[in-house]
Amino acid sequence: MTTVTVKTGDVAEFFKRGKEVAKLADAGQPIPPSHLIGFEDPSALAAVITAHKLKIIRAVRAKPAAVGVIAKKVGRHETAVARDIRQLTKFGILKVRKVKNPGHGVMNFIEPAADEIELRATV
């Protein structure tokens, strides 16, 4: 199972994680795969993970689909949803897969980047 973790944390925590990974590497042990997106300030996390984007994430986790289908499901304009999906893809929360669309070429299919998406904010 893969997890994307989006959380707040300070610089000390960042370096602590780095030291733990370096110790594993020095000991020749495998480094567990992880995908962590960290924000120093909870307000920066809130600026990226908005209520609109949470609706998109939930819709995609429930049923991956094309942008137009997701836009209808969340009740927003397709252009706005596409913009939010680009940002969520940039952060590695969602991913876009090209899928053949018979008679119409190829469409972008939006799906979660991981089995689990964990959001944590500590104030």
Comma- or semicolon-separated keywords:
Arc Repressor Mutant, subunit A, 5 helices, alpha/beta, 28% strand, three-stranded parallel sheet, 123 residues, 46% helix
Any overview of this molecule?
The chain has 123 residues and is of the alpha/beta class. It has a single domain, classed as Orthogonal Bundle (Arc Repressor Mutant, subunit A), CATH 1.10.10.10. Helix content is 46%, strand content 28%. The chain contains five helices and six strands, in the order E-H-E-H-H-E-H-H-E-E-E. It has helices spanning 11-26, 42-48, 51-62, 67-74, 78-90; strands at 3-8, 35-39, 65-66, 94-101, 105-112, 116-120. A three-stranded parallel β-sheet has the order 2-1-6. Strands 3-5-4 form a three-stranded antiparallel β-sheet. Helix 3 (51-62) packs across helix 4 (67-74) and helix 4 packs across helix 5. The relative contact order is 0.23. The model has no long low-confidence stretch (mean pLDDT 89).
The end-to-end distance, rounded to whole angstroms, is 28 Å
What number is the mean pLDDT?
Answer: 89
User: Which fold name corresponds to the CATH topology?
Assistant: Arc Repressor Mutant, subunit A
Main beta-sheet annotation: 3 strands, parallel
Q: Count the beta strands.
A: 6
Query: How many distinct helices?
Result: 5
Sheet with the most strands: spatial strand order: 2-1-6
> CATH superfamily assignment?
Winged helix-like DNA-binding domain superfamily/Winged helix DNA-binding domain
| CATH architecture name | Orthogonal Bundle
Q: Which geometry do the CA atoms define?
A: flat
Helix share bin: 40-55%
Question: How much of the residues is beta strand, in percent?
Answer: 25-35%
Task: Give the C-alpha Rg.
Answer: 17 Å
Q: How many domains is the backbone divided into?
A: 1
